[in-house]
């Protein structure tokens, strides 16, 4: 991570600790951000889906960003600024800038299946905040696909500097590099980390370091460094957990793994329901196996 590219490296899409009454435990969140950086991660991405931003009040959402900045410094914090409207997303980007952040992450319009003109207008509006924008391509959840050609156009217009790629299609990395060689590719799904690292990714917006930061950071650095001898065995060990990042229940799974690893994962806000017994058993077994193997 550098001052000019604060989105590079391992940026953890932070889970948000909730109390038993489902209020946000801001002190615990501050400690979690500091713990992640102290254990090898480069920064955090608050107010992503893993941070349950959709079910926060505006006051909570703003305070989450301010809490992270106070804990680890604004250059290490890249908040998600997704919103139904472009004006609201820009306001969240401006709030991030006022809090001291150096970049923001932005989904395309996600209230409907937006066309290319709407996508371009959305990113243009948020770019006017003055902060560098990292696009977030999640066609599974948003129904809007930022295909390589569209990403190249967004980058060419000066609206985005990077992209968190969550499509799962690792072939896109090479097409993006051809069409927009200066656009930074960030790994967006934990279970394609090795494939996208080998393809030239400059960062990882990561889920599972919430539970196992040291081992995940070690895996990332070996992978981007081309040390497959170190990366591949670790990737195989972690993959039974990493693949949960691409499941509908990823928030519940990662929070459960945090609990098992000795962190506070805790509950989720509705409408997210608890894992089904079979899902819980699978996450628990994979996490206990990883911890028993010395991963942390």
Automatic annotation (TrEMBL):
<keyword id="KW-0456">Lyase</keyword>
<feature type="binding site">
    <location>
        <position position="205"/>
    </location>
    <ligand>
        <name>pyruvate</name>
    </ligand>
</feature>
<dbReference type="GO" id="GO:0008840">
    <property type="term" value="F:4-hydroxy-tetrahydrodipicolinate synthase activity"/>
</dbReference>
<feature type="active site" description="Proton donor/acceptor">
    <location>
        <position position="136"/>
    </location>
</feature>
<dbReference type="Pfam" id="PF00701">
    <property type="entry name" value="DHDPS"/>
</dbReference>
<protein>
    <submittedName>
        <fullName>4-hydroxy-tetrahydrodipicolinate synthase</fullName>
        <ecNumber>4.3.3.7</ecNumber>
    </submittedName>
</protein>
<comment type="similarity">
    <text>Belongs to the DapA family.</text>
</comment>
<dbReference type="InterPro" id="IPR013785">
    <property type="entry name" value="Aldolase_TIM"/>
</dbReference>
<feature type="active site" description="Schiff-base intermediate with substrate">
    <location>
        <position position="164"/>
    </location>
</feature>
<dbReference type="InterPro" id="IPR002220">
    <property type="entry name" value="DapA-like"/>
</dbReference>
